[in-house]
């Protein structure tokens, strides 16, 4: 019934080449009209507008900082805007600013001052910013130390065509406003992870962002695409994570949450996935979950080639207020995939629910387990907005075009 009722004009984002960063063009399609339509976004006065006239949208992250035309001076306000399980990630809020001025000269063993690698291994908290547009091609994975923010606002910042970011056995990391793409494996090399330690690394997976035994992590307003392995993978007991306002496209295995079905440390994993735009060319694992607790809330899915949300080993999945728009292929309408080798239908006891999700173009969610709300307490991290309001809440996922002296 929803499909026939809402089958009117829908505005979606298409990826187009635009310099070094993706940009978006609005095109009309026959689908849901209440998802993303920039021309109908209202500002804080209730007036319709676009560009700098648009301000508060109902997005609880962006509304706390994007209306400030002096955001550059007040950059660290961002650290207090997090939501979900990763809301306590402060990054480098309590430290100094560090300005990256050198996009080259990547020395994994003895990082050069002025480079991103030099900044992220320091012992003290740092809020890392950039002095110009940069494309950074790393020689080995970028291994981060605790209490760091990478803040790309104001410039076009890319990490691409080399190994990318590893967050291993550290905490309090914020990554914001970076375009991460075409990441590849590397390794069997000495890489410095702290100022006082460098060690031999094995071969990395080729993830865009790899979380390994990490906690209090927030990844916000990044654009990710076309990496060798995952775009964002979280394993080995990583927890207290929020992945929000990102734009992801053209990738196979998008997000893996959990190391192995028998790795019990992942039972404590709690991840919030909110306000993301899962765009064209995504196949599966959006995300794939194991053992832990996953709050998937107010995202837009514009098609998948295998499945959207999957899992094994009895994860708890709380899907709320999302929009799922299936492709026209009649064989891939199902949102979910319960991964099990058992023939006794054990997956029917796993607690997966769809609460207030909007299913379009024949999409359907196979729920399981108990429907009692209390069962999902450990997989609840924020208040879900109605799916019909996502046109207001998600006007601009991915990297923002923030100009100094103007609202983002």
From TrEMBL:
Lineage per the UniProt record: Eukaryota, Viridiplantae, Streptophyta, Embryophyta, Tracheophyta
UniProt signal peptide: 1-22
Cofactor(s) this protein requires: Ca(2+)
Enzyme Commission identifier(s): 4.2.2.2
Entry superkingdom: Eukaryota
Catalytic activity from the UniProt record: Eliminative cleavage of (1->4)-alpha-D-galacturonan to give oligosaccharides with 4-deoxy-alpha-D-galact-4-enuronosyl groups at their non-reducing ends
InterPro entries on file: AmbAllergen, Pec_lyase, Pectin_lyas_fold, Pectin_lyase_fold/virulence, PEL
Listed Pfam families: Pectate_lyase_4
Organism: Escallonia herrerae
Cofactor, how bound (note): Binds 1 Ca(2+) ion. Required for its activity.
The Pectate lyase domain, residue ranges: 133-330
Pathway(s) it belongs to: Glycan metabolism; pectin degradation; 2-dehydro-3-deoxy-D-gluconate from pectin: step 2/5
An annotated Gene Ontology molecular function: pectate lyase activity
Protein family (similarity comment): Belongs to the polysaccharide lyase 1 family.
Name of the featured protein: Pectate lyase
Keywords recorded for this protein, A-Z: Calcium, Lyase, Metal-binding, Signal
